[in-house]
């Protein structure tokens, strides 16, 4: 039912995809678009490298430190957990969060290394479930061609091929898949439409309930 102060919960919209699939620029454009329409919206990203856990993750990704695969898995998860209460506060206040990577990255990247699927999922249980996941679907080969990789630990074609296979196993009913091999502008139009439709459908649902 609609709350007394007439406020409705914001939507948690997560973007997933391989490195260089275009998530970061699509998220940025989407947030500007939604802001322009008067929505209360914020852009978030994981890993959030600004926290102390995030700095450990960043050092690992840039090959400045070495960590056991299980250890880094738990740090990525801890980085989501340390933002959970703020995430809940924002959503309850009616702010929609557009999030560049979330638990699906956690599971896809670590299972691609060979870690156990159930073990990888366990620390994600209890985090806020996304309302909508937009998967930017690009072939690993096409992603690698896009201005090359930035040199971080996971940005290698062979590994991204494995990540792509593991992402496919994670698809559930909250996913919308967008062909990210299309020109950026076409991707942008489709992303905007999918997310806006979702937000409108949620608002209608709340008003009618
Ligand atoms: P980004 O800042 O979005 O480019 O992400 C940095 C890299 O870390 C990228 O290769 C994806 C990977 N990554 C993101 N989240 C996780 C996670 O939870 N676990 C693991 N193992 N890797 C992740
Ligand atoms: Na990256
Ligand atoms: Na990115």
Structural account:
By secondary structure, the chain is an alpha/beta fold. Helices cover 50% and strands 13% of the residues. It contains nine helices and five strands. The chain has a five-stranded parallel β-sheet, sandwiched between helices. The longest helix has 25 residues, at 184-208. The protein is globular. It binds 2'-deoxyguanosine-5'-monophosphate and sodium ion (2 copies). The site of 2'-deoxyguanosine-5'-monophosphate has 14 residues, from helix 3 and helix 5.
Which terms would index this structure?
209 residues, binds 2'-deoxyguanosine-5'-monophosphate, 5-stranded parallel β-sheet, binds sodium ion, globular, 50% helix, 13% strand, disordered N terminus, 9 helices, alpha/beta
SSE layout and pairings?
Layout: E1 12-17, H1 23-36, E2 41-45, H2 52-61, H3 69-81, H4 84-92, E3 96-100, H5 103-112, H6 117-121, E4 132-137, H7 140-145, H8 157-168, E5 175-179, H9 184-208
Parallel strand pairs: 1-3, 1-4, 2-3, 4-5
The structure holds 2'-deoxyguanosine-5'-monophosphate and sodium ion (2 copies).
One sodium ion binds next to loops.
């Amino acid at each position: 039912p609609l709350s007394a102060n007439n406020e409705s919960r914001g939507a948690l919209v997560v973007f997933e995809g391989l490195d260089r699939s275009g998530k970061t620029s699509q998220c940025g454009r989407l947030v500007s678009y939604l802001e322009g329409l008067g929505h209360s919206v914020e852009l978030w990203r994981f890993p959030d490298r600004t926290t102390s856990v995030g700095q450990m993750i960043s050092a690992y990704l840039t090959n400045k430190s070495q960590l056991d695969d299980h250890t880094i898995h738990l740090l990525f998860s801890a980085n989501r957990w340390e933002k959970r209460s703020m995430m809940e506060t924002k959503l309850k206040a009616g702010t929609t969060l557009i999030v560049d990577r979330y638990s699906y990255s956690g599971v896809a990247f670590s299972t691609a290394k060979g870690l156990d699927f159930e073990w990888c999922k366990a620390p994600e249980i209890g985090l806020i479930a996304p309302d909508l996941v937009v998967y930017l679907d690009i072939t690993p080969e096409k992603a690698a061609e896009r201005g090359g990789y930035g040199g971080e630990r996971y940005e290698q074609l062979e590994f991204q091929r494995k990540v792509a296979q593991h992402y496919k196993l994670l698809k559930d009913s909250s996913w919308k898949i967008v062909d990210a091999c299309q020109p950026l502008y076409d991707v942008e139009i489709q992303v905007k439409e999918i997310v806006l439709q979702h937000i409108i459908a949620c608002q209608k649902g709340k008003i009618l309930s």
